[in-house]
Amino acid sequence: MHLHYWSLFDGHAGSGAAVVASKLLQHHILEQLQEIVDIMKNSAVLPPTCLGEEPENMTANSRTLTRAASLRSGVGAPGSPSTPPTRFFTEKKIPHECLVIGAIESAFKEMDLQIERERTIYNISGGCTALVVVYLLGKLYVANAGDSRAIIIRNGEVVPMSSEFTPETERQRLQYLAFMQPHLLGNEFTHLEFPRRVQRKEIGKRMLYRDFNMTGWAYKTIEEDDLKFPLIYGEGKKARVMATIGVTRGLGDHDLKVHDSNIYIKPFLSSTPEVKVYDLQQYEHGPDDVLILATDGLWDVLLNEEVAEAVTNFLPNCDPDGPHRYTLAAQDLVMRARGVLKDRGWRISNDRLGSGDDISVFVIPLIHGNKQSLNKQ
Amino acid sequence: MHLHYWSLFDGHAGSGAAVVASKLLQHHILEQLQEIVDIMKNSAVLPPTCLGEEPENMTANSRTLTRAASLRSGVGAPGSPSTPPTRFFTEKKIPHECLVIGAIESAFKEMDLQIERERTIYNISGGCTALVVVYLLGKLYVANAGDSRAIIIRNGEVVPMSSEFTPETERQRLQYLAFMQPHLLGNEFTHLEFPRRVQRKEIGKRMLYRDFNMTGWAYKTIEEDDLKFPLIYGEGKKARVMATIGVTRGLGDHDLKVHDSNIYIKPFLSSTPEVKVYDLQQYEHGPDDVLILATDGLWDVLLNEEVAEAVTNFLPNCDPDGPHRYTLAAQDLVMRARGVLKDRGWRISNDRLGSGDDISVFVIPLIHGNKQSLNKQ
Fold first, then answer.
1. Which of A73, A226, B90, B92 has the fewest CB atoms within 10 Å around its CB?
2. pLDDT per residue over A56-93, tens digit each?
3. Do residues A295 and A193 share a domain?
């Protein structure tokens, strides 16, 4: 089986985790895919639920039947004719694609566990975001844990291939965890969100707040406990978990603590990527159709549409057979985000400030996806 | 202030909760809105963060400054110029709309607490879903907790105004809760998902599973613990939490237990609605533009598009000034979902099975929204 792999890591608080992940994550992905390689090849048959077992008709045992006497059918309510009483239990059919997603998810978890195990011996510092693309059997699997971003540009149109994981986008997950496991807050933080810091003199007054299960805001009477620092604080690029970190998924960070305290951040960080699938064979791709991966340094200053426009204008001016046309397009994007040094700092188009963050960009042509799939047919 | 209110409750395991909620939920909503009525009227000024306090510039205290020394700027990484070091803390600006959303969310919580408090005295049985629409200051707030559904039909096009909360759509929330608080499973259930029941003879074999943080599937070695009944089991309309309930948000159900056990279901159920906002003043509405609320009995057998087509065909044939035209359209929808009794049961269009569930439908004209807002301007 053909397999292609691209990956992008953005480190923080040290380069260790990013370097280790850039060298080892692909091995974890390969290891996870190893178990399912024969199943993937056999695309005509759905993946077996249980390995090393002949498919058979299962009859439910009596315990199962009792449990199946569910609420709606059990209390005399008229059952919908589309849901006859369940006698024999059916099996959920899992498509092949879901096994690749599961393999990538497991690989991220294993990578994070390896960093945890070996961080002291090998002095693996810091943490990193991870954005990974796996090409397998005509499909792209884009896995993202962090605040990097992937988009596809097809015919000049943007197809988003990832979402970002930040204190703002993951607020409810983080607040819910803190609500259920308050000891993780070390008596220093509150899981409630307030529009600003609460002052002691405001105790007894009514202030806007937001709990884990709210998307709106309501007033509550301020108590002593609300004076603690909020778990989630700040807006946009300044939003932080426990006043420390601005990205909520990734690898590493096992030793990261709140400044001047003994409170670990890691329980709030997830190593699980979101995996989106793009079926290359569903579309015909031209030489200017590309997948773009970039760190937040690019997306902080350029909109998806600006990136699409830049690439769509740049590529047709390159030699169509030039070996470096996509590399040149990536360099062009980096320079558009960095800008040029003027009197008042680095400036990009429309006199906006350029990015001072590090900027990494991949521009990956999709046209080879066509050819590869054609070769196989 | 003008306020309009519609509500739809679908009971299960007894009618008590549905009846009580249909009589009292609006009072909780009014009570919550009471506190913010003056703020809502004053639409020119953003809602105050703290009530009874003059706005002032806050200077951060030293503790705050320490905490603000966040990871990215704290470890020598180049800070982006768009995020200068924070010296003075800004205040999050909360728009008026968010206060109405918060008020409705709080009202649902209070309603559920009242049912919990009074269920024994007043013998309030069962639980119910709740779909509520509040009209306030030119906007519709559609709040949904359960598996009813609201759609707007505008110019024959469907605008979804709610999503459903079921064991399948809320799988990850439920598994996460069970993972973090395993005692809620009463040693009878496992938070892991399997494509079918695991049999004892399969211990030691590799079977597909899905954990709370996975969207894909992977193989794991079956252990004794995996023989427990899965927290989430079944597909589509047959999906159940703890083999008992097929809807995961709503009111009531405080006494609901797993059949033949002492395990309560309520900790897994949420009373929080999802609130979507529709700005009536953003569009001009004709006499055939409507908001439709209906219980799952309708949506189980008819697609959004079929409902839109039916209404779009029905309304123009009614007297435009007839006082019952929207009621007639609602009745038409109910009959389309119930079908007619034939040799082989109740049948709807294309010889599909009709709904055997109860079916409640509201068809609410949006054209009065125009007029009302115009009157006010």
1. B90
2. 444 444 344 344 444 444 333 333 444 444 445 678 99
3. no
State whether A183 and A99 are in the same domain: no
Spell out the residues 6+ positions from residue B47 whose beta carbon is closer than 8 angstroms to its own: A208, A217, B36, B39, B94, B95, B96, B99
What is the distance between the alpha carbons of residues A304 and A315, in angstroms, rounded to a whole number? Answer: 17
Confidence check: pLDDT of B376 > 90 = no
Q: Among A106, A181, A274, whose Cβ lies nearest the Cβ of B180?
A: A181
A65: nearest CA in chain B?
A: B243
Evaluate if residue A303 carries a pLDDT over 70: yes
Q: Scanning every residue of chain B, which has its alpha carbon at the shortest distance from the alpha carbon of A82?
A: B353
Which of B246, B261, B285 corresponds to the end of one domain?
B246
What residues make up the domain containing A187?
171-246
Q: What is the helix (H) or strand (E) element at residue A174, kind and residue range?
A: helix A171-180
- Count of domains for chain B: 2
B39-48 per-position pLDDT tens digit? 999 999 999 9
**Chain B hits for A71, Cβ within 8 Å:** 12-13, 240, 244-246, 256
Residue A234 tokens read as 């700040």
pTM for this structure?
0.88
Q: Do B52 and A206 touch (CB under 8 A)?
A: yes
Which B residues, 154 through 193, put their C-beta within 8 Å of a C-beta on chain A?
A: 176-177, 180-181
Question: What's the complex ipTM?
Answer: 0.87
pLDDT > 90 fraction of chain B, expressed in percent and rounded: 80
**How far are the Cα atoms of A156, B30, B102 from residue B109, in angstroms, in the given order?**
47, 14, 11
Residue A35 is nearest to which of B35, B213, B219, comparing CB atoms? B219
Q: Is A346 on the interface with B (CB under 8 A)?
A: yes
Confidence of residue B201 (pLDDT cuts 50, 70, 90): very high
CATH number, domain of A329, equals 3.60.40.10
Q: Could you give the CA distance from residue B375 to residue B377 in angstroms, rounded to a whole number?
A: 6
Q: Which two tokens stand for residue A189?
A: 């933080």
Structure-token match 């269920």, residue found: B119
What six digits make up the tokens of A340? 């040029």
A140 phi and psi angles, rounded to 5 deg: -100, 130
Q: Amino acid identity, residue A239? A: A
